[in-house]
Write a structure and sequence with these properties.
The complex is a heterodimer of chains A (136) and B (91). Chain A is built from four helices and no strands. Chain A has 136 residues and is an all-alpha fold. Chain A has two domains: 2-89; 95-136, no CATH class. Chain A is elongated and about 65 Å long. Chain B has 91 residues and is mainly alpha-helical. Chain B has helices at residues 3-28, 32-57, 63-90. The chains are: A mainly alpha (136), B mainly alpha (91). At the A-B interface, α1, α2 and α3 of A face α1, α2 and α3 of B.
Chain lengths: 136, 91
């Protein structure tokens, strides 16, 4: 019974990881790659670590597996947000099929501060024609 | 079919194929941020491989390595994004 549960959980997890790997290879854009990769890979690793926690009867191993899964779950969104913000700030081009870019003109070019409705920053950047181009 | 055989012949080969696909993106990657997330995904798949291998061999020794790998993946992504942003700001 336990073996069946472990087999099902690890199969779902490994399919999620395979989808993440195919996604990072096939997606046309850095931001789409990021959005596919982080969620699917975290789900897959979490499920495999959970099946590992079920498999071993010792409390120490189970605790370690749950701790690794919790750590991955905690750090993956933070790392993804940081690298996505950096990619936008250094001007990674968007996919040509992107229909909407809410961040365009919202970052101050010099201080890298985000402002939600700063009119003079928008006016300055609209005048200078800054921001990542939508040609990709 | 025992669980160990299932892990050895189904789970680990699929994980290896995923590693190969991510390696292609790591070599091709048009920008450096693509390579950074490919590296992050490689280490995450490495953690999964360690989990599957531990189930297959019934040894829990490798779990410490998985913990260190998860830590390194997070820290390397944070460091890469920090210094890439610094480098852009200095130009």
């Amino acid at each position: 019974m336990t073996d069946l549960i472990i087999a099902i959980l690890s199969t779902i997890g490994v399919i999620a990881i395979l989808i993440a790997a195919i996604g990072i290879l096939r997606m046309p854009d850095f931001y789409l790659r990021l959005s596919v990769t982080v969620k699917a890979a975290t789900l897959g690793s979490g499920l495999l670590l959970f099946s590992l926690a079920i498999f071993f009867p010792q409390v120490s191993v189970t605790t370690k597996a749950v701790a690794i899964g919790f750590f991955l779950l905690l750090t993956a969104p933070v790392a993804a947000h940081m690298i996505g913000r950096t990619a936008y700030l250094i001007g990674t081009t968007l996919w040509k099929g992107t229909v909407r870019d809410d961040l365009k003109g919202m970052y101050d070019k010099d201080s890298h501060r985000l402002s939600s409705s700063n009119k003079d920053v928008q006016a300055k950047q609209a005048a200078a024609g800054e921001g990542p181009d939508q040609a990709g | 079919m025992s669980l160990s055989l299932y892990i050895d012949y189904v789970i680990l080969p699929i994980l290896a194929i995923s590693l190969l696909l991510v390696f292609i993106r790591l070599f091709k990657g048009p920008t450096i941020v693509d390579r950074v997330i490919a590296l992050d995904l490689l280490i995450t798949i490495g953690v999964s491989i360690i989990a599957a291998y531990s189930i297959s061999t019934q040894q829990s020794t490798f779990m410490d390595v998985a913990m260190i790998l998860a830590l390194i993946a997070f820290l390397s992504t944070i460091a890469f994004s920090f210094y890439l942003e610094k480098k852009d700001q200095d130009d």
